[in-house]
Amino acid sequence: MSGAFQAPRGTYDVLPEQAAARERLERTARRLLEGAGYRRIETPAFEATELFARGVGESTDIVQKEMYTFEDAGGRSLTLRPEGTAPVCRAYLEHGMHKLPQPVKLWYLSSFFRYERAQAGRYRQFWQIGVEAIGSDDPAVDAEAIVLLQALLQELGVRGVRLRLSSLGSPETRAAYRERLQAHLHANAGELAREVRERIDLNPLRAFDSDHAGTQAVMVRAPRLLDELSPDDAEHFEAVCALLDAAGIPYEIDPTLVRGLDYYTRTVFEFTSDALGAQSGVGGGGRYDGLMEQLGGPPTPGTGWAAGIERMLLAADSTPVPQPVVDLYVAREDGGRDDASAAFALAAQARRAGLNVQLELAGRSLKGQLKQAGRLGARFVAIVGGQEGTRLRDMESGDQESVDGADAAVARVLRGRHPA
Ligand code: AMP
């Protein structure tokens, strides 16, 4: 075993052959979201730990066991961001975005960090595309955000997409419901998984997420939050559903849907893909009308979602992305150093003219250089340094002609690139 380093567990390298599909995904998201009036925001990779403790919620798995928290040399407790909503809300408050026309619609493309059990589709550094629409409680904001994520998944060719939808109501409804649910869990404590039993007081809602058979049986009989919404919240939820119906978006109402973050109120939703294994969530989100106050701001409603880039790539049809065309490969007659500056100058001039150019960099023989140009699919090869000056070879026809200097070579390749 050599002692060479490997990337830390749960992290991965994006290799050049994977970068093109990723860039295509990013371009699609940018076009779609900016077309709908969302503007890009980027926040720092780390924030004060307190932001997540208060914003995401002390009782959540994220805050309890998944954060990368460290103290810096100045003694401040900082945390690598585990999610994007709390930082974006922090930025909204910090930059006085309430003065802008509302809702303020923001999107981001960033990496996030969670100490989770690493497996296929689940990493410790992962990437999300997300949106936040802040400053309006109109159900149309929720519905539009959902429609946008649906459109993104569709355009990317994500297979087997399903949308689950629910409402968590207001904090008051949830508090009353929480007590009823806790009573139900205590009454059936003997049948629950130990982990669920230990968290009855801290986070009873998470019991709905358990894959333990006994717990699931107890949860089938549990009271449902959706049946206990206040009239206002029920009306809001019905409006969201009606708008999705109007947009022709299929969904399932799932009263057991709970998301792993504490800040949600009213609408919550999750998109899954049948093409993925155990980690089937591709994206999800919801409304967080109480979050701004938690962060010390004035009451300000908001809605958002985040979708995992790795999961979308795993679940999407993978049509190969074409490589950029190589217009010109600059070779050297004797493969030696003498012609290096002439070749270098020609490549630089051709690039200034807008051509995609590659240069021989490995000291191959002329035969080897032509082979390499063929592998790259180069359209022309310029052979610099021969007796009769620079020659230009059309790789498709195999024709070879002498050209009088770099200007002529570039002009000829440009003509070949844009046939009259
Ligand atoms: P969340 O921020 O937990 O609501 O997650 C939103 C989306 O981010 C999920 O549906 C996944 O697609 C993705 N995601 C969350 N956690 C991870 C992770 N550890 N590794 C890869 N993707 C993740």
Characterise the protein shown here.
By secondary structure, the protein is of the alpha+beta class. The protein folds into two domains: 241 residues, Bira Bifunctional Protein, Domain 2 (BirA Bifunctional Protein, domain 2); 90 residues, 3-Layer(aba) Sandwich (Rossmann fold), CATH 3.40.50.800. It is built from 14 helices and 16 strands. The strands form three sheets. The protein has an eight-stranded mixed beta sheet with strand order 1-5-6-11-10-9-7-8, with helices on both faces. Strands 13-12-14-15-16 form a five-stranded mixed beta sheet, sandwiched between helices. Strands 2-4-3 form a three-stranded antiparallel beta sheet. Strand 14 and strand 15 form a beta hairpin. The radius of gyration is 28 Å and the shape is elongated. The protein starts with 15 loop residues before the first helix and ends with a helix. Bound molecules: adenosine monophosphate. Adenosine monophosphate (AMP) binds next to strand 6, strand 10, strand 11 and helix 11.
Write the layout of secondary structure elements.
Layout (H helix, E strand, L loop, with lengths): L15 H20 L3 E2 L5 E3 H7 L5 H6 L2 E3 L5 E4 L4 H10 L9 E10 L11 E10 L4 H18 L4 E7 L3 H17 L6 H5 L14 H8 L10 H16 L5 E2 L11 E9 L7 E7 L3 H4 L7 E7 H7 L12 E5 L7 H13 L4 E3 L6 H11 L3 E5 L6 E4 L5 E3 L2 H13 L3
Parallel strand pairs: 1-5, 7-8, 12-13, 12-14
Antiparallel strand pairs: 2-4, 3-4, 5-6, 6-11, 7-9, 9-10, 10-11, 14-15, 15-16
Helix pairs in contact: 1-5, 5-9, 12-14
Bound molecules: adenosine monophosphate.
